[in-house]
Specification:
Elements lengths: L1 H7 L15 H37 L3 H35 L8 E2 L2 E2 L2
Helix pairs in contact: 2-3
């Protein structure tokens, strides 16, 4: 009876984790992909906001408050688009620095020569 309890108490370690490592090239690629996706979504929203502001401006007629509101929408949409595009440039620069493509002056077939 005691032997059964001894077997029940044996620790069986989990199997070792297998797989490959995560390289800087993959990290840079992941940063570029996510940054590009988010930039595209934000630019889409900015285009929609610009179109909506144009529709608001056309429907405003001679009402100055509606015209001012439409102009505010347009200004904010353009500022947002500029911010998003600036962030996209920063993200792509960081991705190129991480993958060391930023410092490459000459590359042939994707390989940095100098």
């Amino acid at each position: 009876m005691i032997e059964i309890y001894k077997i029940a108490q044996i620790f069986i370690p989990p199997p070792p984790v297998v797989g490959r490592g995560f390289t800087l090239a993959e990290l840079g690629s992941l940063i570029a992909i996510v940054g590009s996706f988010l930039t595209n979504i934000a630019v889409l929203f900015a285009i929609i906001a610009i179109v909506v502001s144009g529709i608001m401006y056309m429907r405003a007629g001679s009402d100055t408050t509606k015209i001012t509101n439409a102009q505010t929408w347009l200004r904010n949409a353009l500022i947002g688009a500029l911010i998003v595009l600036g962030v996209g440039v920063i993200i792509n620069t960081i991705a190129n620095v991480v993958t060391r493509e930023f410092f490459c002056r000459l590359s042939i077939l994707g390989q940095c020569i100098f």
